[in-house]
Design brief:
2-enoyl-CoA Hydratase, Chain A, domain 1; alpha+beta; globular; six-stranded mixed β-sheet
Length: 440
């Protein structure tokens, strides 16, 4: 049975985000003072001078949007104005589906390289193969485009066509392939069986994440057999975050009881606490969670909850350290305001803003020689204008965010497998729930 946590607050990618209605404010304590109105009058005066006297006629809508964004980005790196395109893109990401072709791609030699076509999607049916290079999209050369620009061009309304020019190893000439776009559902969870273990990788926290996770756990348990299954690895590395309600549901999937996360805003009465419900989808099987510098926000909520309750051992390197909640406030039918309104806290009452989740077992992933100097540690504490965390120190947050493409080279993953199979030992595994410093 699917357990759902119904929330008024949900999240957006790269942040735990609450969707809220437009509020009206009275004229009491929150009313703007006379000095504020004087400053607004100055802004209006500057705007009129620019509009009337700038050397070339400016785009007035762009001026206003830039002014709004300047105000918001001066607060912190995660508050911003969402125009119609931005708001639509955010909704697409959180739904986990879009109109497109169905290919996983990367950039190589200034061309779009197809990593793999997703089964039973327009690209696969049209004959696009792994290893193909896309040199033109609807006749426009790919060289000079960023990967995100190329991906945007390949997405579009369903039932519309797109022509790809393909360079294929062994082909004498470029191949022209027409693809009809369709709805592409992106799996939020990938999984596989590793002999007597289950591997679960959460890519992002979209509306589909909990359902995908439940299906994956069920499939692994059925394939291996509940009596033979020794445990699970939950891989949250390179996970940028996502929907807050999905992070809570994922945490709840492994917990029987207790607080998962709390969000605390400007006023004490705005504090909200979210608790687990009875029922562990894995029946208490041993669990190791992998994190690195690419694990942010919603993924840190999950890692923090499972770590604090001693339900899982966290292995890897310090996470990104984004512990703020952004509220999405609709401004009209097409635009919205993304505003930081709270910080979230793990069950032990710890804010990870600017500090991150510190693993129980710290193990760095070696970076190949050819990538050294190109892959650098990153964290919230390094972002200009970030909110100072309650426990932030000079050490800061974040670490190298690198995962080897071949699992055989993945030292963090293979260490987790060895721990679960008892091939190596560590005092941090298995954890002791009775020592958890949280209220259950």
């Amino acid at each position: 049975m699917i357990r759902k946590v119904t929330l008024l607050a949900v999240g957006a990618l790269m942040g735990a985000t609450a969707f809220g209605a437009v509020q009206s404010y009275g004229t009491s304590a929150s009313a703007a003072g006379s000095e504020t109105y004087r400053q607004l009058a100055i802004f209006g005066n500057v705007f009129e001078r620019v509009r009337a006297q700038y050397v070339t006629p400016p785009e007035e809508a762009e001026l206003v949007e830039s002014a709004i964004n300047g105000m918001l980005t001066s607060l912190d790196p995660h508050s911003s104005y969402l125009n119609q395109d931005d708001a639509d893109d955010m909704r697409t990401q959180t739904r986990g589906e879009f109109g497109g072709l169905g290919i996983e791609v990367t950039m190589e030699d200034e061309l779009v390289k197809v990593v793999t076509p997703i089964d039973d999607t327009p690209a696969a049916r049209a004959g696009v193969l792994a290893g193909d290079f896309i040199s033109e999209i609807d006749g426009e050369p790919v060289r000079g485009l960023s990967l995100s620009d190329a991906v945007d061009k390949m997405r579009g309304p369903i039932n519309t066509s797109i022509e790809l020019t393909i360079l294929r190893d062994g082909a004498d000439a470029p191949i022209q392939i027409e693809v009809i776009r369709d709805i592409i559902s992106v799996k939020a969870v990938k999984y596989r069986v590793e002999d007597d273990l289950g591997y679960l990788r959460i890519i992002s926290f979209t509306e589909k994440t909990y359902g995908d996770l439940e299906d994956a756990i069920e499939a692994i348990t059925e394939e291996v057999g509940a009596d033979k299954l020794k445990g699970f690895v939950l891989d949250l590395r390179l996970n940028p975050g996502g929907l807050l309600d999905q992070a809570i549901s994922v945490s709840d999937a492994f917990l029987e009881r207790g607080e998962i996360v709390s969000t605390r805003g400007r006023n004490p009465e705005e504090t909200r606490r979210f608790n687990a419900r009875p029922g562990d989808l894995t029946d208490g099987k041993p669990l190791i969670v992998l994190v690195n510098g690419g694990s942010a926000s919603a993924s840190e909520i999950v890692a923090g909850a499972l770590q604090d309750h001693k339900r899982a051992t966290v292995l890897g390197t310090r996470s990104f350290g984004k512990g703020s909640v952004q509220t999405i406030i609709p401004l009209d039918e097409t635009t919205a305001l993304r505003l930081t309104t709270a910080l979230y806290y793990t069950p032990s009452g710890k804010s990870i803003q600017g500090t991150g989740i510190m693993p129980d077992i710290e193990l760095e992933e070696p970076v190949p020689e050819e990538l050294r100097g190109r892959v650098r540690a990153a964290g919230e504490s390094q972002l200009r204008g970030h909110i100072q965390g309650d426990a932030e120190t000079d050490e800061g947050s974040g670490s190298i965010a690198y995962v080897p493409p071949d699992p055989k080279d993945d030292q963090q993953l293979n260490e987790a497998f060895k721990l679960l199979r008892g091939e190596v030992t560590n005092a941090a595994f298995p954890p002791s729930p009775e020592t958890a410093e949280v209220e259950n």
